[in-house]
């Protein structure tokens, strides 16, 4: 995960403790910045707000600032900004693999022939493009194929391109 999570707060704050537990329970690396113990952290937090107040707890995920978010809001932003944490779903009835990012569906469609999976189409919703989600989708699909014991043929040009960039998938993906 390349997106940095910072938690500005204090050890005495129950909400700060809640967020620390949340990140640990979800295996999300984060940096805790105690704004009472360190004036540099306090000044960094003041710099995030026009009123220059110590509004804690505040969480930053990359460039996104969240002031005391509820669990659903925090989950929504984590899913959007760190889609690698999401699980791929194999919808066998619909012949596709999906990543559900807050209701927006990134997908790979396939056809089964001769016990091989032909990966024919990949799609990321327009509003999520340019964030690396397509690459995450393809890699998670390859990992799922490996778990399920499938061999696949990359028909879609984007899937071919991702597969060709790594020797890791050579055993399961034909170009």
Molecular structure report:
This protein is an alpha/beta fold. The protein folds into two domains: 5-83, Glutaredoxin (3-Layer(aba) Sandwich); 86-174, Aminopeptidase (3-Layer(aba) Sandwich), CATH 3.40.630.30. It contains five helices and ten strands, in the order E-H-E-H-E-E-H-E-E-E-E-H-E-H-E. It has helices spanning 14-25, 39-46, 71-81, 133-148, 157-164, and strands at residues 5-9, 31-34, 58-61, 64-67, 89-91, 96-101, 104-113, 116-123, 151-154, 173-174. A six-stranded mixed β-sheet has the order 5-6-7-8-9-10. A four-stranded mixed β-sheet has the order 2-1-3-4, sandwiched between helices. A hairpin with a 2-residue loop joins strand 3 and strand 4. The two termini are 28 Å apart. The mean pLDDT is 93.
Helix content bin: 25-40%
Provide the CATH topology of the largest domain.
Aminopeptidase
Average the pLDDT over all residues and give the rounded result: 93
Main pleated sheet: 6 strands, mixed
Counting structural domains, the number is 2
Question: How many strand elements?
Answer: 10
Large-scale geometry? elongated
Strand order within the widest sheet? 5-6-7-8-9-10
Element pattern in H and E: EHEHEEHEEEEHEHE
How far apart the termini lie comes to: 28 Å
Q: Find the CATH superfamily of the largest domain.
A: Gcn5-related N-acetyltransferase (GNAT)
Strand content: 25-35%
Question: Helix count?
Answer: 5
The CATH class of the largest domain: Alpha Beta
CATH architecture of the largest domain: 3-Layer(aba) Sandwich
- What is the CA-based Rg, rounded? 20 Å
Low-pLDDT sequence parts: none
How does the helix and strand content classify structurally? Answer: alpha/beta
